[in-house]
Amino acid sequence: MSFAKILKWSLALAILAALTGSAAALFLWSLDAATRARFANPWLIYLLPVAGAAMGFYYRCHGKRISSGNHVILGKIHKEKAPVPLSLAPSILIATVATHLFGGSAGREGTAVQMGAGIAATVGRFSTTGKASMNLMIFCGIAAGFGAVFGTPFAGAIFALEFTGHRLVSFKMIPCLIAALTADQVCLAWGITHTPYPAIEFSKNITTYLPLLWKVFFAAVIFALASRLFILASHFTVRKLREWFPHEATRAAVGGLVVVGLFVALGTTDYLGLGVLAENDTSLTLPRMLDPALRAPADAWLWKSIFTIITLSAGFKGGEVTPLFFIGAAMGNALAWFLNAPVDLFAGIGMIAFFGAATKTPWASVIMGIELLGWHIYAPLAICTFAAWKMSGRNSIYPNVEDL
Question: pTM surpassing 0.90?
Fold first, then answer.
């Protein structure tokens, strides 16, 4: 590669990382503000159907091509479909913040991926030539968005390649990692702090390690079966809601009504929103699931699954990663008490293994677990994640290439 080309790519990556890191900072600040606004004004939850209808009308009238952002990204990469538009980034950001403001149960990785891809495609139109170069720029955008939003740049670089179905051992990893590391630093420079997770201590003493192995494998089976259930239920719900309510606004309004109805029936806000900020001292949150003293309700994972599946299937925007973390951690917490195992360890490997099994991104999941929870648990974390992934089947929560 010539010096001029290296310089051109370096400049493009710097611009991409600066823009994506800044967008991630704005997004995280907005999510935090929206969640706290909902805590201060509980009546906002009852407007979720109205927000869904407005969102559905917008995407039907002005953003139909970008309403399924992951399809747009993967379609461009694998099938050379229409270019990824810049409008994907602001649309998904605003829609996701609105989802969380009114209590929809969604995540943020979908938004991070789509913001990064939209920005990257725009930068690429001015700095690259050819399909391969544009695709590489989009990979870098995905890595930058994911890495900056979660504060896990190494996982972001790997996720960009696993998510798009490319080999990990590739030169593409280098620019993806550079973009993710830089975007993460830009995000932090804006004063953004990421969700803190406790560093889990784990003894490698053989007398404690070997008896724990069968419990780790047993947990992996449960996570694999639960991920299959989540994937099947998600695909079924999406299909049925589109069949019953073809109009996007009606579909989202009905989904919002169901979520509000479940909230009223259960009498708790624990399964609304992102699940990382505590509304009060008794709130179930993702970080609290890792507290060794907490005994989470045995059905917490099921209720969070139901709230998330309905929210996203109805057309609200966000992502699945943080809800998957919540579900896996809740399941791991319950299993730990059942198996007489370390609660923080099993909640930690649960949040990562369930995510890896549902998304079919085991390598990114393990690296993300290490970045978030520390190196001490790498052995049980990797064993459980790869075992759950292998037993979880071929389907994923993300679109199949054949269906694009």
Answer: yes
